Amino acid sequence: LASIRWIPLSSLCTPAFVVDVDKVKRNAQRMIERCQKLGVQLRPHMKTHKTLECADIMTGGSRRCIVVSTLAEACFYADRGYDDILYAYSLPFDKVEQCAALSEKLELFQILLDHPDALEQLRKRPLRDGRQWHTEGVELRGVYAHCGNTYYCTGVEQIQAVAQETTKLILQFVEKLKAVGITCKSSIGSTPSCSHPVKDMAQLSEVHPGNYVFYDAQQSMIGSCCLEDVAVRVLTRVIGHCPHRNQLLIDCGWAGISLDGAGKLPTGYAVIEGHPNLKLLSMTQEHGRVEPISGELDYSKYPLGSLLTLIPYHSCATAVMHPVYHVHSEGRLVGKWTPTRGW
Amino acid sequence: LASIRWIPLSSLCTPAFVVDVDKVKRNAQRMIERCQKLGVQLRPHMKTHKTLECADIMTGGSRRCIVVSTLAEACFYADRGYDDILYAYSLPFDKVEQCAALSEKLELFQILLDHPDALEQLRKRPLRDGRQWHTEGVELRGVYAHCGNTYYCTGVEQIQAVAQETTKLILQFVEKLKAVGITCKSSIGSTPSCSHPVKDMAQLSEVHPGNYVFYDAQQSMIGSCCLEDVAVRVLTRVIGHCPHRNQLLIDCGWAGISLDGAGKLPTGYAVIEGHPNLKLLSMTQEHGRVEPISGELDYSKYPLGSLLTLIPYHSCATAVMHPVYHVHSEGRLVGKWTPTRGW
């Protein structure tokens, strides 16, 4: 008889960033199916999680067709068998040599240019092995926009209005290019617009959302998802009772959840799961101050050492604070994911 | 003839966290001398930098008598020959076993208790090898306070008033303990109060500041230091011109400088060295938006690829975003420091 080790989430030392792998898979699969149904190529963004395991889930195992926000991510994925990587960042002049090396190594490495000086930088560094940056040194592959203004939306109607407007503008621009003899691709992104796409987005070549694999409290407020779709949490423990301030202290400060979302949520810097009357009011590096939105705290409900679960306001900002993610399925720990960091 | 490699800061890819090792040594030495002159034991805090090299400088090479904010720091230093470590954190119940292991391993490992339940936790885990938590299982070593309210001060006079008040309260409390037969130590900290100590602090057993080794824009506003004393910077490059918004884009977003300091500085999230009319207005994960405080930007002064230097609002918050610190002496790169992370 083999003994089965069933390790619960509550065994983790806190603060701990935990990922529900079933929700990650569901969020990823839904986006894949949404894009298939719409008839547009999905190019998922890696910046939210920066891990190999999550990238494999988002690409359905193909290890092709991704977007990254840093050169560190580009190298991380290129070193692990990924290809067709789009570095969605206006070409940084200090990284031309490394971009050239990736272009020589991969089947396809795409970079963004938004200034003639950047073109000059590429011309100064021709590619080796018969490769080229394309046509007179550079090939324009496509037009890329983010539609970050979807983050000011509330509800599907507003999101779709922005998605429609962005799609229209991009397609008009591509038409203008075509009129002067340049045929190229088009891509827009943002998790809100790709969670509720409009039909015309089928005319785009690609979409490039990223946050959707985790989602967060912000996305649920925008209307991209339900709070139940959010795949990540920060586990924290009560470490102090402060009856003179009607507060609890928890072991998660800004080093564990980030300062993102100040003033955005009625419950402060996070949603405290299962405790809608609690607010994460303020933080130091390693301490959080929690108080009731109304009334007096009943400290017997929150003994020292007891666990609380925080739903991050912005999962990209929270994930970046953690050197390791603890992965679980239905509350059972199943592994660890280690993100890449730096630039 | 040996060739001398002189590697300038400008060779770094950005964003990069850079540390002026001469300023670090000067800030550390000044604090050592200030405490010697006052006649109080310095127990430097490691939470700002979390590196071995900086700890060696702060302890004058003794590798004894430090404070840490996380168990990860405690283990990091204990594994590298450090001893007499104070874990300045109300005993987290999930970490009792690891605290016991450190108490068994080190000559002296000190923890903080602020609740009878915590005492119960220690009793449940007696130490091995003839060691003990002391008297009935636990020895009260001292009373520890932070005087974090010095962070609301402006100027030496206000700082010293808080330092005086905190010292008085702590010493009165120690006297009360003495009256009931308990003799113990006393320690206060905070970089502002220890940068401008009052005479009565000589009656304390210890002081435990930490940020002073780097300082930052916040400390210069409080009056703890001059802006010239700040030992750390984030190097960033101009990656975009946005004349329609009268803005520059830089390659440092909140992943490179943190969101700390929102609304606190007239120049936004950082001081942009040598450019008092520029403001770091807002950020995404990897982009910063810079605009003039008044007037129109002269883009010819900020060509794409040119370097800007950010002085962080809060160096603890900025350092934690960086997996490596680039160390220089007079602009010449001399090494890298790698901080510990996590909990």
TrEMBL record, chains A, B:
GO BP annotation list: D-serine catabolic process
Show the SUPFAM superfamilies listed in the entry: PLP-binding barrel
Boundaries of every D-serine dehydratase-like domain copy: 231-329
Q: What is this protein called?
A: Zgc:162816
- Pfam families, per database record: D-ser_dehydrat
Q: What is the lineage of its organism?
A: Eukaryota, Metazoa, Chordata, Craniata, Vertebrata
User: What GO molecular function annotation could you give as one example from this UniProt entry?
Assistant: D-serine ammonia-lyase activity
Q: Which InterPro entries match?
A: D-amino_acid_metab_enzyme (IPR051466), D-ser_dehydrat-like_dom (IPR026956), D-ser_dehydrat-like_sf (IPR042208), PLP-binding_barrel (IPR029066)
User: From which source organism is this entry?
Assistant: Amphilophus citrinellus (Midas cichlid)
